[in-house]
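User: Quick sanity check before I run a bigger batch. Here is a single chain. Can you write out its predicted 3D structure?
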Amino acid sequence: MLTPLEIWSALEDVKDPEIPVVSVVEMGIVRMVAVEHGKVTVTMTPTFSGCPALHVMKSEIENRIRQMGVESVEVIVALAPRWTTDWITEAGRAKLKAFGLAPPPRVNGDANVFFVEAAACPFCGSSDTAIKNTFGPTLCRTIHYCNACRQPFEQFKPV
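Assistant: Done. Predicted structure follows.
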């Protein structure tokens, strides 16, 4: 029988479909793993309730666990408590930055914080940046411009 720790470790292989450099574990999307009577139950919280990648993530989590020889797998989607960028791990934040996507600041659960004007540039580290568009290629990103190195970049929205 597999342990929850082994399942957590295996889920590191399941990448966020929209940001493939980070796993669903590093993004804080996987919230709980339980193993009971040969059944594995994973609880996940998507970044947004209307996340277009929700079904892909759910399917890939199920498939990864089935690859481990588990026949009975249930993935539960929980919308409460709502996902927050505070759940992104430090390793995930580092990978986002290396990917060229500014990691969001920690907001400590303050739902009133949505857009932070001065996002640190993931390329040069400068905070002399400006938000150019509150909607990036996905709902969870904003587009910024660095006045120091003149690079455009995206930031994951802090929520």
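The mean pLDDT is 91.

User: Great, the batch can go ahead then.
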